[in-house]
Amino acid sequence: MLIDAHCHLDFPEFDVDRDDVLARARSSGVERFVVPGTTRVRWREVLTLGDRDGIAVCLGLHPCFLDRHAETDVEALEEALEANPTVVALGECGIDARFADTLKAQWRLFDAQVRLARQRHLPLVIHCVRANDQVAKRLRQLAPPAGGLIHAFAGSPEQALAFRRLGFVVGLGGAVTHERASRLRRAVASLDDDGYVLETDSPDMPLAGHRGERNEPARVVEVGRVVAELRDQPFTRVATNSSATATRLFGLE
User: Fold this and answer.
1) 84 Cβ partners below 8 Å, 6+ apart?
2) Residue 45 buriedness (CB in 10 A; 0-12 / 13-18 / 19+)
3) Which run of H or of E encompasses 2?
4) Residue 62's closest CA among 155, 119, 142, 126?
5) DSSP 3-state helix, strand, coil percentages of the chain (rounded to 5)?
6) Are 127 and 153 in contact (CB under 8 A)?
7) Which residues pair with 126 in a beta bridge?
8) CB neighbour list of residue 43: distance below 8 Å, 6 or more residues apart
9) Is 10 helix (H, G, I), strand (E, B) or coil?
10) For each of the chain's 253 residues, which pLDDT tens digit applies?
11) How far apart are CA 29 and CA 37, in angstroms?
12) Which of 40, 52, 53, 119 is most exposed, with the fewest beta carbons within 10 Å of its own?
């Protein structure tokens, strides 16, 4: 069994064929899915997906959608987590340094969500782009007890190790399939067997050879095969380790 540890199945890109997407994934051996929330207005769709077999959900406020967040959304997030105890993590939250003009606001929102996750003893699902060292430093300062996932990790072996020491695992997705991602590929080879999970970030993060196409959870199998090659391990071992880590991290049955 494979788990896609991060896929946005609530996004409108899947509205016309969501059931077919899930069927293709399951026919490929992907049996479970973790769907993060990104904005308050999408939490309802995320929670509705969580009623389906095999789908676990997270709720959070994504740093790339600051213009869609309101001052009251962190309070609303706390209330939503209280009302929905089946939510498996807080996220997707984080920092995206490509948007330098909003960094101050991103950090305020991130800090508030880390503290909320600590309060509720929930793992975090973190979007971290061009800010690995800064995010690791902040996590050391705030010390969330339940660890979490550094989604779509694209850093160095040293940065991966820093997150691992903080109790986090890294998410490996489409980026690892691109040959030019040499630093990331070295990091993949350096990870412990329980240091990563496989993900797609569907409908985003297309794999090599699929540029311009909508991504979907079935392709987590392709990600796993590349990871197995980079780690010089059988695909079955990579799939088993990833699913075991995702199950432990998110408390899946």
Assistant:
1) 47, 50, 59
2) middle
3) strand 2-4
4) 126
5) 50, 15, 35
6) no
7) 93, 150
8) 37, 59, 80
9) coil
10) 899 999 999 999 999 999 999 999 999 999 999 999 999 999 999 999 999 999 999 999 999 999 999 999 999 999 999 999 999 999 999 999 999 999 999 999 999 999 999 999 999 999 999 999 999 999 999 999 999 999 999 999 999 999 999 999 999 999 999 999 999 999 999 999 999 999 999 999 999 999 999 999 999 999 999 999 999 999 999 999 999 999 999 999 8
11) 24
12) 53
Q: State the first-to-last Cα distance of the chain, in angstroms, to the nearest integer.
A: 13
Q: Which residues of 116-155 are buried (b: 16+ CB within 10 A; e: fewer)?
A: bbbeeebbbbbbbbebbeebbeebeeeebebbbbbbbbbb
Round to whole Å and give the CA distance between 237 and 39: 35
Residue 93 DSSP class: E
